[in-house]
């Protein structure tokens, strides 16, 4: 589309910097206003035309147009004539020889003017020889030259360069193809191999614009094709696939264009901050999460289609460009399928009229570890069959039988399941799966859509059966090897989140779906109930481990009562570990691993003893004391001194800590020369999944706030906190801390934290300084802190639960409120999940009693006021 006449006139009349800025401002307003009125392709072409005219005008202003040996060449996206509102402007100044000082000065003035206009530019000045040398070393530069376009100047030199780019053996078709595929594979790995991140990169994610551009680049280099449409005549695209790719491209352009407008800058990652405004700009509505969900589902469906077409076309290209690299070994698998190298191919597409053969194809993949991909012609056939399906594949008895064979196959839930997910077979089989495809999650710790999270969960369960699982998850690996029906664990994984997005309790709704599935597929009543129970209770173990004191026998008894049998415990433990690991790449760590393992082992022991004969707390204390004392005696400490130290501790000390922690803390106290003075010890290596911090001090109500402030100022995360008092007025603080990455604290950093805590104890008036925090995100999701006060199991205690965005110093602010209201903190459990903090405190009032209704109301109000002040 031609530029508006007013833009042309403003640009033509511009003389001063302010004139050019006014022209640009008017153009950008026009661009924004026109977005809802005309195709996005017109607008990105219009911006390229605007930049063309601007550069040509400035070329004349700075007298570069008088230089006959100079060519101004657009490269990259600008070379294609595609510029989104704030896309970088890449151009090459091609010279026949090194420019003189006078020309260099003019070029400098030209570039400076562009910077003064706040344009993001990428430029270079090269001779043809230098461009060729750069091209030889850099496939990215070679690609940008492939899309070069002359804007102004020496067309003869430009044609020489263009001819060389296409015909030179430096990057022949085969080498160029291999390099671009490797580049794409690396890009995909950086995105963890999935398009379904909740904050996807429109360009870089699998199925993004780069995947479309890769197809175009290879087609240009090998087939000399200028457009996708030309691939139809070469026999690589059908008319329908060309229309589909064109539609996908336009949709991705629309979303990227809207993202630029929402961000007000060049931005390719669709961050949570920008999603609501981008959704509104695109016409999905302004109703918050609902409009974002509609937009993101559209985006994920587009990316899925692009990724599938990209794989199909690149496989076709490989056969044409590098036939010597395509393995020609053909192995007959049965009368309908054969293996061609590492790909499976259907002999006759009409075979899929028998719908169960779609799953037989994946059975062959499960049977043959050599098969890693599906042959391109077979992908095309699967896509055609998918479009023509009437109803769900689970409606066919033969499909149900084939699907169950896959679920029960030792390798069925490995690569075969991944390819089923990737090529839409799960959505074609299960109607509920279609509902969760591309389903967003707004809980601040899930990193993937519901379907991709579930896919990763299944992959995690599958890992239990291989060598890596045995070394990393020995308990899970041991459990699954003795499971009589591991397929029930897989089915629980498939259904655990399948009801998300419908409203209501997804666990209960998913359990209903699981029962219906089991009934349709002929499962026994007992098996159906187990799967439904797992789906209904899939959050129980993680919630118990992270929010309750698993060293408390009463907690274990209550949990074991809900679990009921050791078999259900086994299944739930394996499901829980896989679920947490699939939630977020940064969520799983040794601390969570330790918590779940200890909960599993404690519960297993309780079930084996019998719920009617629970382990007495006195027996537990006796066992811990015996084991801890034996360790200390072996280190040379005297029993009398050990008993003297322990006589100062209340019984709850021995229930709160493991025998390893008790002996480590006692060793520190036994080595102290003056127990009247405060002291600190930080473990040099991980213990119970994290770095342990133990603080011993005379009691002070303000001490907890200072200690957590020091730890926060050192950029460490508190995962768990325990506060206990001795019989003689001292207080014991125990923290489990981790790096932001989830790893234990490095030894050098551990000593720095120790010194900081010692200074806080020795100089209570010294101010603790925080480093400047990173900016907080998610403001558009209207995430409000949740504060709940409720009774505790002990009548003289109250429980305070706080869920909030993890702002820096959050724990310090909470402690300050507690200090102001003279609360005693008896225990704390701190959990940071992604960007969300979930903190639990066991407290009492100044008289060591449970909080009254009036006290609860005052504390609730004070915490709310503190959080509101922080976010303003």
Automatic annotation (TrEMBL):
Residues 450-572 form the HD domain. Residues 1-332 are annotated as: Uridylyltransferase. Residues 692-773, 799-872 form the ACT domain. Its cofactor is Mg(2+). Its EC number is 2.7.7.59, 3.1.4.-. Keywords: Hydrolase, Magnesium, Multifunctional enzyme, Nucleotidyltransferase, Repeat, Transferase. Has four distinct domains: an N-terminal nucleotidyltransferase (NT) domain responsible for UTase activity, a central HD domain that encodes UR activity, and two C-terminal ACT domains that seem to have a role in glutamine sensing. PANTHER family: BIFUNCTIONAL URIDYLYLTRANSFERASE/URIDYLYL-REMOVING ENZYME, BIFUNCTIONAL URIDYLYLTRANSFERASE_URIDYLYL-REMOVING ENZYME. This is Bifunctional uridylyltransferase/uridylyl-removing enzyme. The gene is glnD.
